[in-house]
């Protein structure tokens, strides 16, 4: 028998069905709440509200578990390639060799971007933040690669290939121009990550030597960022896509949401925070105290805390270990790594953080690795976007295939009640 939840309000009792997911998460189905009771729910930030059913990513915030389509993130980070994980997220299973060869070859052959997109890019000031450029250019892709007819999605797979293939190409343009260097074209003979690195770092005057240590480190980082169920930017992609907007406009909205310092922009904030602590003498306890008095100092420890993880973010554990490995293999000695470890140690032993279950999140150590790979701070969130792209695509595709209704939350109105209009001359 289906379980139900009983609600008594205004002296009347109501029953609502409950449901349980494959990992035993439970929910009340309140789809008919307002029709039955006249009440809506209020849940600021949707801390308790499930927006959908999804088969893509499972995470358990209490246990620190993260799985993509049932595969543990630890396994995927250690054994898979980023494009394999992209295929898994988008199409639901790890690809066979033939499937992967076809998928990877398609991506390889779509990395070139329409030259007219450069005219849009050239209109940005050199100082433009790469995330603003990326979001604009992805939105512009809808003009260069329109659906055959609106709502006719039979070429969705081609749009998916185009997004995966072209995002790294346009992502490098901002960096090259910030240096006054010419942008690089992709090379079909290079694999996905080497191609990105080559576009980022090669120069007309000398070839760029692809370092396998750098490739492997980026592969792990992109996999770890690939999806994270209904986070802010993914929910944005789903909401925009629920109006039948095209995939490029939906992904562009997701890039904009990710940019915020409380979300993907945190990886840039973390490095700037660690640099400030270093410049201020490296006294981490001073900054822990400032964070504890956030209401007066307005200071937050970026890279700490998470809406869902009330235990260690499993991604942070992997990245922290990778940071040690990569920096030692590259012979990089970055003092902010020790400051980060000292900050983590101080915070994890402080009652304020323990009580609020604030642990390092995915953004706390990632910037240290990006920096060791030669990637500048203002490109860190772009790296997050490149990693998260397959997750956004998978979630958008699932939303469309599930024929989700257009998203339209309700509200509790607290404004003025009806009042007479007073003509201007009388005011
Ligand atoms: C990502 O959702 C996802 O899955 C996101 C993500 C993904 O993969 O998509 O995991 C990626 O966005 C990671 C988070 C990156 N953001 C940061 O590192 C920014 C710093 N962290 C916080 O701003 C905060 O922890 C959030 C935004 C991440 C979560 O905020 P919540 O869940 O709304 O929690 P909250 O702001 O209500 O904080 C609860 C308490 C508050 O104290 P009290 O009012 O109870 O006294 O904890 C405090 C907060 O002041 N707190 C912090 C803190 N984070 C929360 N205090 C100091 N430093 C912090 N970082």
TrEMBL record:
<dbReference type="InterPro" id="IPR024176">
    <property type="entry name" value="Citrate_synthase_bac-typ"/>
</dbReference>
<comment type="similarity">
    <text>Belongs to the citrate synthase family.</text>
</comment>
<dbReference type="InterPro" id="IPR019810">
    <property type="entry name" value="Citrate_synthase_AS"/>
</dbReference>
<keyword id="KW-0808">Transferase</keyword>
<dbReference type="InterPro" id="IPR002020">
    <property type="entry name" value="Citrate_synthase"/>
</dbReference>
<dbReference type="InterPro" id="IPR016143">
    <property type="entry name" value="Citrate_synth-like_sm_a-sub"/>
</dbReference>
<dbReference type="Pfam" id="PF00285">
    <property type="entry name" value="Citrate_synt"/>
</dbReference>
<protein>
    <recommendedName>
        <fullName>Citrate synthase</fullName>
    </recommendedName>
</protein>
<dbReference type="GO" id="GO:0006099">
    <property type="term" value="P:tricarboxylic acid cycle"/>
</dbReference>
<keyword id="KW-0012">Acyltransferase</keyword>
<dbReference type="InterPro" id="IPR016142">
    <property type="entry name" value="Citrate_synth-like_lrg_a-sub"/>
</dbReference>
<dbReference type="InterPro" id="IPR010953">
    <property type="entry name" value="Citrate_synthase_typ-I"/>
</dbReference>
<feature type="active site">
    <location>
        <position position="363"/>
    </location>
</feature>
<keyword id="KW-0816">Tricarboxylic acid cycle</keyword>
<dbReference type="GO" id="GO:0036440">
    <property type="term" value="F:citrate synthase activity"/>
</dbReference>
<dbReference type="InterPro" id="IPR036969">
    <property type="entry name" value="Citrate_synthase_sf"/>
</dbReference>
<feature type="active site">
    <location>
        <position position="306"/>
    </location>
</feature>
<comment type="pathway">
    <text>Carbohydrate metabolism; tricarboxylic acid cycle; isocitrate from oxaloacetate: step 1/2.</text>
</comment>
<dbReference type="GO" id="GO:0005737">
    <property type="term" value="C:cytoplasm"/>
</dbReference>
